UniProtKB/TrEMBL annotation:
MF-aspect GO terms: proton-transporting ATP synthase activity, rotational mechanism
Protein name (record): ATP synthase subunit a
Top-level taxonomy: Bacteria, Pseudomonadati, Pseudomonadota, Gammaproteobacteria, Vibrionales
Localization per Swiss-Prot or TrEMBL: Cell membrane; Membrane
Membrane topology: Multi-pass membrane protein
Length: 258
């Protein structure tokens, strides 16, 4: 698009970083991120359902073997980190890893392919990497934060959770205000760091692909885009893994005594 003279490089980059949204102010919804993330989540559940339904105890097919490797990997990670008994943690970790990975994987689709197709259909803007949208990543991290609060209260009781916030690290009533500030910042930092880490890495990766496509001639883009895409495979997998591991760690901390 930038090379055809329709848009300047600055306009091209701005166009690809603009979401298709509705509403205004706080109640602005990036519907492209919402639709893509829901479709990817539905696709993931459908794949796991089909594999589970057709699973055989004999020689597994390639897809079943791949899914079993993922399930065993996530299960081993949960057993190593979460030492309590909770039927939710392992399925949640598997869902987080698979969903975040698929959202990150959208970054490997050529920059202009889906947005240009959407333009032909009359859709002015389309961003197809939900994890490069801070609203999506922070929503997921807030979901984890709600579970942290829930399990902290469930496992320790309201009194135990309040003592953990008010009597740590200084176990004296006179230090309760200081403890509340320190523990409150630590507690709130968990969802903020969880969401912003994923967003920052994926936004940077998306921006590099857009810069390559917007600033270089079409015949030379592959020189940089292909090596970056190969390296980016490691990034998208690592970010999904980190999001999953931190989710397990935070829930483990919430389920244990200080």
């Amino acid at each position: 698009m930038a090379g055809s003279g329709e848009l300047t490089p600055q306009e091209y980059i701005s166009h690809h970083l603009t979401n298709l949204d509705v509403g205004s102010g706080f109640w602005t919804f990036n519907i492209d991120s919402l639709i893509v993330s829901v479709l990817l989540g539905t696709l993931m559940m459908w794949i796991f359902y089909r594999v589970g339904k057709k699973a055989t105890s004999g020689v597994p097919g390639k897809l079943q073997c791949f899914i079993e490797m993922i399930v065993e990997f996530v299960d081993a990670s949960v057993k190593d980190i979460f030492h309590g008994k909770n039927a939710l943690v392992a399925p949640l970790a598997l869902t987080v890893f698979g969903w975040v990975f698929l959202m990150n994987l959208m970054d490997l689709i050529p920059v202009d392919f889906l947005p240009h197709t959407a333009t032909l259909l009359g859709i002015p803007y389309l961003r197809v990497v939900p994890s490069a949208d801070v609203n999506i990543t922070m929503s997921m991290s807030l979901g984890v934060f709600v579970l942290i609060i829930y399990y902290s209260i469930k496992m320790k009781g309201i009194t135990g959770f309040a003592k953990e916030l008010g009597l740590q690290p200084f176990n004296h009533w006179a230090f309760i205000p200081i403890n509340l500030v320190l523990e409150g910042v630590t507690l709130l930092a968990k969802p903020v760091s969880l969401g912003l880490r994923l967003f920052g890495n994926m936004y940077a990766g998306e921006l590099i692909f857009i810069l390559i496509a917007g600033l270089l001639p079409w015949w030379s883009q592959w020189v940089l885009s292909v090596p970056w895409a190969i390296f980016h495979i490691l990034i998208i997998t690592l970010q999904a893994f980190i999001f999953m591991i931190l989710t397990i760690v935070y829930l483990s901390q919430a389920s244990e005594e200080h």
